[in-house]
């Protein structure tokens, strides 16, 4: 409390003035005013800009006929439903596969997000990429922490995007070298994991097998076997124990942990929370990231001839790009395909070993035997094999590894569909839901009315109409347009080569055994899934 003096001066000639002390909260009152006003103003601004404004924007879209997910609440959006889907190893995109409109909405944390699900709207959205829409993704706060300046996380107008993407694509086009690595590593992995049990059978966890294979293949292709062989890193694992592990094990482990950490409920509600050092786990991940970046810098400074690392640096250096661009793009090239390729192969083998699809397994084996007798390089023949290719595409249609086109409106624009004009406001996150698109009957029927229902697994649709489907807006497991995955060709070759090796190994009575408590469903193999199965066969 502060005090002030009040003098009683009742008049001249009277008794001397008396000093009266009166306490007043002057100083405290000032502090309450100066601190309270900004705090209250900030709270009001936050409520307006991130809550009321978002709800008004939702109402704006609902008036245009855009439906929102049921039970979609302010701030938390539909993330409670997303959590339930994740517990079933399903992607959040399955929220939008059976809704009655072509644009669906949800609240994702403090932002509003729309999803396009039919081919025409997806195509129109892709056409606006780099103009009215551009990169704005929560991935920057998760796996982007490993390579924050890499092109997948940048605007198309920054950091020489086009030149960098072209160089990265060119550096991964050595299909002959990649095929040799994939085939050798696939055989090595299958031998390593084919351990006979006491029952006389062999049981392999498909997830463990394919994680090992993708680590070995990607590390050798990008950095070279001599560069990663014998290179161990000492890091703290999720159980708090410090261990010394191979470089690619640490990279894959960190990449996976970052993705699942960012997918926790509150990190999904507010994306930047995933990158803040608020938890012990976040701080542990940051330490491991710094260790990985240091070792990648060392390897980049000592590239092996013919590797992706050497080719990319040579092109980037020739165009005067800073080393940090090469470093981040190489780190991304190393980990980007790990789970995507693993998930794609898991889905393909799951369908291949389905007793109802025995015809396709035999057809692929016969096709591979014929290719062996034909002249030419095997990598070219495998990439062009029609039955194997159709089987892979149908598996990716059934379960794409993930939704890839993740952008936001940078200015107001319009989307037009069948006479309906959707007015999109700047700041709205708007993406293509690949899972929903691949199940959108109306879009696929426009290409071929006699096509089998999309609920059926049928590679014939790609054998008959592959020329129309590939490159169309009905089917884009690797994305489309300027944001399409630069490693699409390399990823497809990796998947098909592993399948070739697998069918040629002639595992006797090979079958799939799903772990107890896990759904027996082919739509569970994507990058956010923990689903697995065992390959069980006779020796």
CATH class: Mainly Alpha
- Pairing-aware structural class of the strands and helices? alpha+beta
User: How are the strands of the largest sheet arranged?
Assistant: 3-4-5-13-10-6
Low-pLDDT windows of residues: 1-7
Number of domains: 1
- In this structure, how is the largest beta sheet organized? 6 strands, mixed
Strand content: 5-15%
Terminal CA distance reads 87 Å
Could you tell me the radius of gyration in angstroms? 29 Å
Q: Give the overall pLDDT as a whole number.
A: 87
**Helicity, as a percent range:** 40-55%
Tally of individual helices? 19
- What is the name of the CATH architecture? Orthogonal Bundle
CATH topology: Cytochrome p450
Detailed description of the structure:
Pfam families: p450. Keywords: Heme, Iron, Membrane, Metal-binding, Monooxygenase, Oxidoreductase, Transmembrane, Transmembrane helix. Belongs to the cytochrome P450 family. This protein is α+β, with helices and mostly antiparallel strands and 539 residues long. 49% of the residues lie in helices and 14% in strands. It contains 19 helices and 15 strands. It has helices at residues 26-62, 79-87, 119-127, 161-171, 175-193, 206-223, 225-228, 247-262, 265-269, 280-300, 308-318, 323-352, 358-373, 378-384, 386-398, 434-437, 441-447, 460-469, 488-504, and strands at 2-8, 18-24, 67-68, 103-108, 111-116, 133-135, 201-205, 232-236, 242-246, 406-409, 413-417, 420-424, 429-432, 508-513, 534-538. The strands form five sheets. It has a six-stranded mixed β-sheet with strand order 3-4-5-13-10-6. It is globular and about 115 Å long. Residues 1-7 have low confidence and may be disordered.
